[in-house]
Amino acid sequence: MTGFDWNLIPIFLETYKLRSYTLAADALNMTQPGVSAAIKRLQSQLGAALFVREGRGIAPTQAAVQLARSLEPAFNNARQALDNLTAFSPEQPRTFILSCDEVMTHRLHRRAEHATALGQCQLQLNLAPQDEETLVNLLMLNKVDLALDLDGLSHPTLAMAPVFEDEMLLICRKGHPRIQGPINQLQYFAEQHVALKIRRSGRYAADYFTDDTLIQRRIRCECDSLLSMMGLVATSDCLGVVTRSVADLYAAGFDLQRLPLPFSTRRVGHAMYWHHSHNNDPAHQWLREQVRQLLA
């Protein structure tokens, strides 16, 4: 096409992927008016509308859907070919940004610090956002390379792989006046509790990870951190519920008993999530393999 501005294509594809001029502008380091103007120029050159307003966002027209389906594979192949010209090497300094929940942060932090296989690469562990929409946007905008979080997150733009399974344990201080060793449900419900709230569900961990119906407990206080939970339990006669992996790391330091829960619990599954555009990226494949080995 004579005179066609091919620089408009990456802007169109990013806008199509994110369904937002604002998010596309963030991803491309442009202004929102700049993205909007580029789409208008592309529409003018093609002679077809590409997006329409839908609520507070935008939706692609059929012309945009057909154009994206034709262009995306070729564009991704071209980008991959360019990336392959400078092959990834862990001996070249690079920092990968990981979004991690608390369990994954504690499991990965020390292991990554002493991992010689990382070479000159660094893993920066960022606190996971409180809502799934923000996490998905961070991955789509490439502001996070990889997310390590509870399994169950589903989004059409994301790929995932399970990486770690944990379980919940009961904790109480070793000097507890009534509890020394495993307890039954009557003893459990007779005590006061520090309740760990799962941030994204708004439910307590003890309720979230069981299929049993638990009766009302006496909640002394709430927290949203496993280490806060352990500190509060260590300085009171309350009971708490934490993951085995974190309890194994810190229970001795807090002088806590680790006991089985007196009701059935489900596994605490964790997975890694990434944007599917990185599926065949050599650097990202290397990153996923390193994280998988570190978490094993």
UniProtKB/TrEMBL annotation:
GO molecular function: DNA binding; DNA-binding transcription factor activity
Entry-linked Gene3D superfamilies: Periplasmic binding protein-like II, Winged helix-like DNA-binding domain superfamily/Winged helix DNA-binding domain
Family under the similarity heading: Belongs to the LysR transcriptional regulatory family.
Annotated signal peptide: none
Name of this chain's protein: Transcriptional regulator, LysR family
Pfam families attached to this UniProt entry: HTH_1, LysR_substrate
Xref: SUPFAM superfamilies: Periplasmic binding protein-like II, Winged helix' DNA-binding domain
InterPro entries: LysR-type_TF, LysR_HTH_N, LysR_subst-bd, WH-like_DNA-bd_sf, WH_DNA-bd_sf
Superkingdom of this protein's organism: Bacteria
Keywords: DNA-binding, Transcription, Transcription regulation
Location of the HTH lysR-type domain: 4-61
